[in-house]
Structures are given as C-alpha cells and as structure tokens.
Write a structure and sequence with these properties.
Elements (H helix, E strand, L loop, with lengths): L17 H27 L16 H10 L8 H26 L10 E4 L1 H15 L1 H4 L12 H26 L4 E4 L12 E5 H11 L3 H21 L2 H27 L4 H10 L14 H32 L3 H13 L3 H10 L1 H22 L1 H4 L12 H5 L1 H24 L1
Parallel strand pairs: 1-3
Antiparallel strand pairs: 2-3
Amino acid sequence: MPSPTPPSGSRVRRAPDRRLLAVGMLAGAAAGAWVAGRMKESAAGTGSGSLAGDVPPMIDWEQARSLAVNMNRGGALTAPARAELDARYRDLVARCVPLVAAYTGDDLPDGPDRTHAFDRVDWINANIDGFRRMFEPLEALNPLLSGKPGAAGGAFLGGVNRAVVSGELGLLLGYLGRRVLGQYDLALLGKEPVAAGKLYFVEPNIRMVEEQLGLPAADFRMWLALHETTHAFEFEAHPWLRLHFNGLLERYFALLRDDAEHLRHAGVKGLGLFVDRVRTADHGGGSWLATVMSPEQRELFNEMQATMCVVEGYSNHVMNAVGKELLPTYETIARKFEQRQRQRTAAEQIFARLTGLSVKLEQYRLGEAFVNAVANERGHGTARRIWEGPEFLPTMEEIREPQRWLARVDARDAARGRRLGEGATA
C-alpha cells in the first residue's frame, strides 16, 4: 500500500494544464483588450466609418508560434528517427495499458495507436492549435468587432495589447517547450464528435533529462509512459469528465463576457470593478490571476483546479502502485527526478510565480496526497469513486482535508440506503 506522502519525484514534468493556463490568461487579456478598445474610441472622438470585415484577431498566432519556436531551435527529429521512436513509444504504451487496466478496472482499447514521438517544435505546434481553440471565446470579446475604427493612437494601443498577449503566450510555450516530457492531449470545447486524446512524448527533453541524471533509458521511458497512459484512462473511461470540465469552462466564459460588456458600456471608469476585486481579494497563497476574478469566476476557477488536482493526483497514485512493481529502478528514478525539480534556477522560479504555474503545481501535489490518503484509509476502491460522477469530485477544501470528502461520501451513501429502504418498504 502506498505511503500517505510518496516521494514527490514520482511526479512527471508534464505540461501544466492548458485549460487552466488559458482561463488565467483570458481573465487579464480580455480586460486589457476592452480597455485598449475604449481608449481607442476616446482618442478617436466620435469616429467615422465602419470596420470592413477584416478585423485582426486579438492574438497573433504566428507571432506566438515564431517566438516559441525561436526559443527551441535544435533537436529536430528526422523522419526515420520519428518513425522508430513512434514505434518504441507505442510499444511502451501497449505494455502499460493492461497493467493500468488491471489496477483501475477500466479499459482503453486503442491508446497505442494515438501515441506520438515529438520534438520541441512538434509540441509547440500541437499546443498552438490547442490554445487557438481555447481562446476562441476571447475573440468574441474583441472590441474591434463592435467598436469604431479610431485614430492612429487608438489603433496603436490595440496593437500593443495584441502584441503583449501574443508575446506572453509565445514566451510561455517557448519556456514549456524545453521542459515538458510528456502530455496527454484531449481537445476541449471542440465540435462533436471529439477525437480521442493523443499521447505525446517530447524526445529531445526526455533524452536531455536522461543524460543529465544518468537514468536508464528504457526504464525512464516506461516511467513516463505509465503516467501519460493513466491520463488517457481517466478521461476516456469516464466520458462525463470531459463534459463536466467543458461545462465549467463555458460558465466561466459567460461570466467573462459579462465583464467585457460592463467595460464596454462603462469605459475606463469600469476599471473600478477590477480595482475593487484586487483590493478585496484574499492574497494569501493564491495566484495573482485570481485577484482580478469575480467571486463567481474564482469559484469556478477553484472547481477547475480541484478537478485537475485529482486528475493529476490519481494518475500519480496509479503510476506509483504499478511502477514500483514493474520497474526495479523506480525509486532511483523518482529520487533523482525530485532532486532535479528542487534545483530550478531563480529565473525559473520567478517565471513560475508570475504565470501562476507554481500554484498549479503545488495543488497537483495536494491532489496526489488526497488520493493516497483516501486509498490508505479505505483502499483503492474508495479512492476511485471520484470517477463515479461530478458529485463525487472533491472540492479544494476536501482535497486539503480528505476526511471531509470521506464524510460527505458516507453521508450520500447513508441517504441513498435510506431511500432504497423506504422504496422497498413501500
């Protein structure tokens, strides 16, 4: 049985969830875009004419892509190398699937067919496409769609905002492109039917870490494959999970549109809304992004964070349970990986704080501790009840105090037992 707090080296450096990064950036970028739009209109006076259908998007995707790619030159995979690595990683995932299925009781029939070896530019391109889908709601808030053409000064302000958001996204992707080892990528907010998720392994980064830490190549790659395979099981064996997360995102974007409309009608004076939020927000230990959110937005953001906490936490729990039996070098890999995680440079630590990544990673650790605590006390069968439906997902408060979640589940079971008993009596 795993210990309540397993070695944190068992956590794989994977992409911090794109959905949460997009939500955080949307909170600031939308407000900035509307402010720029209102300042543009003020500078233009009454304005004249109309927008002639050629409205530039609020994010310059090619600028973001170019910046990220320029940060990740080198290490490109040749076609023969890619084919060989694809086959190797698909074999690893194929070996992981029955092991994870045996432990979780779930099924994943075609995971190996959706497994790909990537270089850094491949990973950037895949995630640019994913971010583009995620940011479509932001484009609906573009002030230029309903504003006036404005003067050169106003257009400049709008262009500056676009350049800042595009540059921020490019810098984020460029930074992560050199560090992410693996990713399970499932499109959200896409049109139905949604294709099954894909598993990516960023070979140049994997090889770099392997060489830096002196890790056994085969075992290290199996260690990584286990983690990503468990994510495929989580989302694909429980289709309600994607629908639930989509619902949270759509509700969040609806609230964001309300903010945008407020700024649209109130102009620069509407900034007082955000000033009040920052003034009254709880600054103790949370991300700075949360301070510009309304209470309703923050509640939804916390619910999304809690969901991803248990997604990551359960994945690590399964990885530990299966990996320790499978790999004789498991503990060695975990220990060395943990040492590497602790040795981040000052620049990396600052970047993580500015982007909110440090908060997200800490909450993922809480998720792992939650799942392990429940499994220790009640067994894996109780821990996996988080996948019975949205009502069984823990809140952030319950993640911090697993006994509260157990008490709530017990109360639900007791109430259901009473209802079943009453029905039988009737």
